[in-house]
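Internal tracking record. Fields below are filled automatically when a chain is submitted to the structure queue. Please do not edit lines marked as system-generated. If the sequence contains nonstandard residues, flag them in the REMARKS field before resubmitting.
Queue: standard
Priority: normal
Entity type: single polypeptide chain
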Amino acid sequence: MKPALREQILTVLAAIPPGRVTTYGRIAAMTEGGTPRLVARALRELPDDHSLPWFRVITASRRVADHPGSMEQRQRLIAEGVFFDARGRVAPEALWP
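SYSTEM-GENERATED OUTPUT FOLLOWS
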């Protein structure tokens, strides 16, 4: 991945406000040449000591993606006031931007 694209993705990621979520696709649309898969890749490659809110990124179906950190992600979102319906989806009002 080109460093400029990675920087764009991380800049958008840093801008997601607490209590809100966005999707891989929405982040990709805010970049030049990004795709949802490239956004996911950039998040997977974050160093362990980062402070970016990776947990605020969900799938287009408004669910937490299936990955090793999914339980932690759900817990962090709930702690910020993001709630899930009975089907595991985040309310559309929580989507940013």
